[in-house]
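Good day; I would like, with your permission, to put a structural problem before you. A protein sequence and the structure tokens that stand for its backbone fold form the material at issue. I would ask you to consider whether the tokens describe a fold that such a sequence might reasonably adopt. I set the record out below, with my sincere thanks for your time.
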Amino acid sequence: MQQPKWEAPVEDLQEHLRFAVPLRAAALAHQISTQGYTRDEATRWLTGEARRAGSALGQGDILLFCDGSERTGRARAAAIRTTDDLVTGIAAAALLAQLDGSGGVTAFGDYHGVAPQTELPAADSSDVHRLLDEFEALMGVGSGEGAAA
């Protein structure tokens, strides 16, 4: 199988992220909720996830450069792992932004998180789960309403 020839690679990456980041953010928020993390614990854990994902992106050229031949074995696994790390890093950063009250992050021109015009309440450790629930709900609204120009 031949690797696809992307005519607009950034747009294709954005499309993938618009789908994958909300799903990963929901999975991370669910894990925080089921583990019963406090606000500080959630912040530490998400910071660790974002850092781990960021350090793994040192191999990001795997996503950028391809000779068009089929990726198999280790090359395929590395590309999948790097893409997964990118999604995790953006989702963790968006959740961290939600917890600190700034609402979200912009990656590759798209905004991930609570819409910038949304009024965010001041957060304390007792309402971390409510904020995560709101984030999950708002991430599912669609990329058009929360996307930055």
